[in-house]
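Lecture notes, unit on protein representations.

Consider one protein chain, 379 amino acids long.
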Amino acid sequence: MEHEIRTLLEGGAGPVGTLVRAALWLPGKLYGGAMTLRRRGYERGLFRRYRPPVPVVSVGNITAGGSGKTPFVVLLARLLAEAGQRPAILLRGYRETAAGDSDEALLYNRQLPGIPVLVGRDRCRSAEAAVRDGATVLVMDDGMQHLRLDRTLDIVLVDATSPWGGGNTFPGGLLREPLSALRVAGAVVVTRSDQAPPDRVAAIRSRLAVLAPGARVFIARHAPVRLHDIAGATLNPSALDGREVVALSGIARPEAFAATLTSCGGRVVRSVNLPDHADIPPDVVASCLAEAVQRGAVVVTTEKDEGKIRRFLGAPPRAGFPHGVWGAPDREEPEERREALYSNVIRSGDAAALWVLGVDQEVRDLPEFREVVLRRLFP
């Protein structure tokens, strides 16, 4: 359902979509106006902002979800650490587990060992705690609309496959605030450039020159670089070439995930799409695996979704996973049923048919991007 709503608000769904968008046009404009007034209130000092004693870089987007913030934050944190800084990631944390983690937090902890990840709705309080613990720079995940924490640099991600959110703010479109807010960006990264025609990418760059005149624009793609099965066996993404695939995900843009699988040579025979950040229950996993095993196919999920699957199955953590988190079973699932599912999926050998594909954000002209970021944060 979420995918269908996104399609409708982006301009699809035929005549019905046109009627719905027309009905929601005014509410969208009213919401956009309120967001503009809110931003101006912060800019003019009507609302108090907290400015930490260290630089803050915000990674955000102008549309709702799916632009690739998580792999981009991983890239940015690594660049800052390689430059000799001590970054900390400030994360709101959607759909937290009982342990206070979210799917993004778990992924950051695994891919960025030694870099603190602070989860909490109050990013100002998280910033204070990070600075007390020795952070020299703060990376605010999904921070463009979180205006209470002042920032040194705004990096805005624009998805090349859906850059403008249907041209209206929610509920009339997918914009979080009007496109005029892009003027605050110090850098804009056009993601998923490989999934859009070159002329569209060129048109996006031309429009950004008007909307964000003070920003440097960079081009990026989601590069598939890691593949393993749920039991921990390492594979090469080329193993997908020629394989039938059941795509399983709970992310904002499952169609982009399917496109990535196709770029690896996989033939997606079915896509099981749950809402962004949604849990992936064992029944769904078992159903997908049964279909895949019957067809001689494989189930492939994302690294963000892997933690959800492991949590529900009660599967033990593989090497590199934070112990006590990835292996913690979901308490809402009856123990007997969880044990049965765990036996059926992991111990039966079907784990070999459940694969996890990892992507990195690959930025063109990376040395120039690094120079721009460091110069803005540490002049």
